[in-house]
Design a protein that fits this description.
Structural class of chain A: mainly alpha
CATH superfamily of the largest domain in chain B: P-loop containing nucleotide triphosphate hydrolases
Order of helices and strands of chain A: HHHHHHHH
Low-confidence stretches of chain B: none
Number of helices of chain A: 8
Main location (chain A): membrane
Largest sheet of chain A: none
Helix content of chain B: 10-25%
CATH topology of chain A: MetI-like fold
Largest interface: A-B, 18 and 25 residues
Number of domains of chain B: 2
Number of strands of chain B: 20
Organism (chain A): Jeongeupia chitinilytica
Strand content of chain A: under 5%
Distance between the termini of chain B: 42 Å
Shape of chain A: flat
CATH class of chain A: Mainly Alpha
CATH class of the largest domain in chain B: Alpha Beta
Radius of gyration of chain B: 24 Å
Shape of chain B: globular
Protein name (chain A): Amino acid ABC transporter permease
Largest sheet of chain B: 6 strands, mixed
CATH superfamily of chain A: MetI-like
Number of strands of chain A: 0
Structural class of chain B: alpha+beta
Number of domains of chain A: 1
Keywords (chain A): Cell membrane, Membrane, Transmembrane, Transmembrane helix, Transport
CATH topology of the largest domain in chain B: Rossmann fold
Radius of gyration of chain A: 21 Å
Mean pLDDT of chain A: 90
Subcellular location (chain A): Cell inner membrane; Cell membrane
CATH architecture of chain A: Orthogonal Bundle
Number of helices of chain B: 8
Distance between the termini of chain A: 47 Å
Oligomer: heterodimer
CATH architecture of the largest domain in chain B: 3-Layer(aba) Sandwich
C-alpha cells in the first residue's frame, strides 16, 4: 500500500480532527451543564418542573440524533431569523453544537440524576443541620460527591458522543471523517482513507474506554 | 430562666398512624437530656421534629424561647441554629477533617474560621488527623469529627441520633463519657436518642423513657433505676424481675423468698393486697445458711461476679448477682436471702 497520499492529505485530516474535538469538548461541557440542570429539575418537588424535564428527556431519547442535527440545521436558523428579523445564517458548526448539547443533555441528565440519588439522604440532612440552603447543599455537598461517582459513566457516554460527531457529515461540516472521505475522493483512494479513519476512531475510542475502565476500578476501590 | 428546649404537647402523625402523641418535656440551658426507648417508640421521630426534618401535626417546639415549630410556624432546619450528630455521622467524604469541621463556618472570615477549626480540633483531640479524610479515620475518630463539625457553629442545641450504635460495645461507654465531657466543656444543651440504657446513663443528666410515642418517666438515671414509675420502666431499665408478693395484716410484704420488713409503699393497700415488687440481682444474696433454696437455671460469668438465673421451688425465676468465688453449676441448689433496701411495688390488677 502507498501511504504517500495520506501524508499529503495530513494537514486537512488534522484540521478535521481539530473540528471534531472542538465540537466534542464544547458539546460535553454544554451537555453536562444542561443535563445537570435537567436532573435537578427532574428531582424537584415542583411537579410542573419535574414533568417538563421528564418530557424533555423522554422526547430526545426517542428520536434519532441525525434527525435532531438536520432539524437544528434547517429550522433553528429560520426561527432565529424570524425572531430577530435578520437573515443571518448561524452556520453548520453552531447548529450542530446546539443539537449535540441538547440531545446529549437528555442522556447526561439520567446519569446525573442517578448520581445525585446515590448520595445518601443523611448527607443532605447533615448539610441542612449545618445551616446550608438548598443550593449550597447541592453545590458543596451533593454534586461534588455525585460527579466523582459519575465520572466513568459520563466519560463512557462522551466516547459514544465522540463517535456520533461523525453524523455532522449530513450537514456538510468538515469533521475528521468527512475530511478523510473527501480527501480520499479527491485522490481516488477512498478505501485507504476510510480504513485509516476507522483505525483512528478505533484507537481513540478503545484507548479512552480502557482508561475509563481503569479509572472506574480505582474509584470503586 | 427560659429553658433552652421546650417541647409542648407535640404530636407527629404519619398517614397511617400517630407516632408521637402530645409529648412534652423541656431542657434547661447546658443540660443533656436523653430519649430512651426500643426502636419504633418514636424517639428518632421526636428528634427529627426538633431538628426540623419532621413537621408536627400539633403542639409547639421552642428553642431558646423562639418558636421553631407550631401550628403557624415551621422553621426549616437550616434556620434553627442547631447542631446534629447522625447515626452514620454523615461526614462529607470528599472533604478532609479540617474542611468537614469548617463546613458550617462559611459566614466567618478566613482567619476566624481557621481559629474556630483549631479550637474544635483541640477540643476533640484530632489536631494530628486534621488533613485526613473520613475513610482514613477509626469509628471513634469519625464520631469526634461529627461532634466537632456540629459544635463548631455554636449551636443553641445539639441533637445526637444514636451516635454510638456504630461503635464496638467496649468503646461505647468510654466514648459516651468522652462525648459528655466535650459537650459539658462547650456548655452545650444537648439531646440524645438511644435504645441503649448504658449509653443514656453515661451521657445524660436526665432521661425520658419512651413507649409508644409517650414519655413514661422523665427523671435522672438514678431515679429511673431506683424508682421506676411503672412496670414497663422497671422492666426496661436495668436487670431484675417483678416478684409477686402479698401484703400481710401488719403491712409487710410476704414473698416466697421471705418477708420484706421495710416500709411498704402507701399505694399497696392493706391486708391481702397482691403486689409485684421489683427485685434487682443485687437484692438477692447468696447465703448457704438460708432456708430459702433455689436451683441454678443459668449463669453468666462477669469476671468479679456471676449473674445467676435461679428458679424458686414454685418455678418463679429470680436473678442474683454473686461474687464469682461462689462457683455453682447449672442444676445445683443454693441458699439465697432477700436483701431489699426499699420496695418498688406495683399493685396487681
Amino acid at each position: 500500500m502507498d501511504f504517500s497520499s495520506l501524508v499529503t492529505a495530513m494537514p486537512g485530516l488534522v484540521s478535521g480532527m481539530m473540528l471534531t474535538l472542538k465540537l466534542l469538548v464544547l458539546a460535553i461541557v454544554g451537555g453536562v451543564a444542561l443535563g445537570t440542570l435537567l436532573a435537578l429539575a427532574r428531582l424537584s418537588h415542583n411537579k410542573l418542573l419535574s414533568n417538563l424535564a421528564g418530557f424533555y428527556v423522554n422526547y430526545f431519547r426517542s428520536i434519532p440524533l441525525l434527525l435532531v442535527i438536520t432539524w437544528f440545521y434547517f429550522v433553528v436558523p429560520f426561527i432565529i431569523g424570524w425572531l430577530t428579523g435578520t437573515n443571518e445564517p448561524i452556520g453548520a458548526f453552531y447548529s450542530c453544537l446546539v443539537a449535540f448539547m441538547m440531545f446529549e443533555a437528555a442522556y447526561y441528565c439520567e446519569i446525573v440524576r442517578a448520581g445525585i440519588q446515590s448520595i445518601s439522604r443523611g448527607q443532605v440532612n447533615a448539610a441542612y443541620a449545618l445551616g446550608m440552603t438548598y443550593s449550597q447543599t447541592m453545590r458543596l455537598v451533593i454534586l461534588p460527591q455525585a460527579f466523582r461517582k459519575m465520572t466513568p459513566l459520563l466519560l463512557q457516554q462522551s466516547i459514544i458522543l465522540f463517535q456520533d460527531t461523525s453524523l455532522v457529515y449530513a450537514v456538510g461540516l468538515m469533521d475528521f471523517l468527512n475530511s478523510a472521505r473527501s480527501a480520499g475522493d479527491i485522490v481516488g483512494e477512498l478505501h485507504q482513507f476510510l480504513l485509516f479513519a476507522g483505525l483512528v476512531y478505533f484507537i481513540i475510542s478503545f484507548g479512552a474506554s480502557t482508561l475509563v475502565k481503569r479509572l472506574q476500578k480505582r474509584l470503586t476501590v | 430562666m427560659t429553658p433552652m428546649l421546650e417541647v409542648n404537647a407535640v404530636s407527629v402523625r404519619y398517614p397511617d398512624r400517630a407516632v408521637i402523641e402530645s409529648l412534652s418535656f423541656s431542657l434547661a440551658s447546658g443540660q443533656i437530656g436523653c430519649l430512651l426507648g426500643h426502636s419504633g417508640c418514636g424517639k428518632t421521630t421526636m428528634l427529627r421534629a426538633i431538628a426540623g426534618f419532621e413537621t408536627p401535626a400539633a403542639g409547639e417546639i421552642r428553642i431558646d424561647g423562639e418558636v421553631v415549630a407550631s401550628a403557624s410556624t415551621m422553621l426549616p432546619p437550616e434556620a434553627r441554629r442547631i447542631g446534629m450528630v447522625f447515626q452514620d455521622y454523615a461526614l462529607f467524604p470528599h472533604l478532609n477533617v479540617t474542611d468537614n469541621i469548617g463546613f458550617g463556618l462559611r459566614a466567618l472570615s478566613a482567619a476566624e474560621r481557621t481559629a474556630r477549626i483549631g479550637e474544635m480540633l483541640a477540643l476533640v483531640g484530632l489536631e494530628d488527623e486534621c488533613r485526613r479524610f473520613p475513610h482514613e479515620l477509626s469509628g471513634g475518630q469519625q464520631q469526634r469529627v461529627a461532634l466537632a463539625r456540629a459544635l463548631a457553629t455554636r449551636p443553641r442545641l445539639m441533637l445526637l441520633d444514636e451516635p454510638f450504635s456504630n461503635l464496638d460495645a467496649e468503646l461505647r461507654e468510654r466514648l459516651g463519657l468522652e462525648v459528655r465531657d466535650i459537650l459539658k466543656a462547650a456548655g452545650t444543651t444537648a439531646i440524645l436518642v438511644t435504645h441503649d440504657q448504658h449509653e443514656a446513663f453515661a451521657v445524660a443528666d436526665v432521661v425520658g423513657v419512651m413507649v409508644d410515642g409517650q414519655i413514661r418517666q422523665w427523671a435522672s438515671p438514678y431515679s429511673l433505676y431506683h424508682q421506676p414509675v411503672d412496670r414497663h420502666v422497671a422492666n426496661f431499665i436495668g436487670e431484675g424481675v417483678l416478684l409477686p408478693g402479698v401484703v400481710n395484716a401488719s403491712a409487710q410484704i410476704e414473698f416466697e423468698l421471705g418477708r420484706f420488713d421495710g416500709p411498704t409503699p402507701a399505694h399497696c393497700g392493706v391486708d391481702g393486697c397482691r403486689v409485684d415488687v421489683l427485685v434487682r440481682p443485687d437484692d438477692v444474696q447468696h447465703d448457704d445458711a438460708s432456708p430459702v433454696r433455689a436451683t441454678v437455671l443459668a449463669r453468666a460469668f462477669r469476671g468479679a461476679e456471676f449473674l445467676y438465673t435461679l428458679a424458686l421451688p414454685s418455678g418463679q425465676k429470680v436473678l442474683s448477682l454473686v461474687p464469682s468465688h461462689h462457683n455453682h453449676a447449672v442444676g445445683e441448689e443454693i441458699g439465697i436471702r432477700l436483701e431489699l433496701e426499699h420496695a418498688v411495688a406495683y399493685v396487681r390488677e
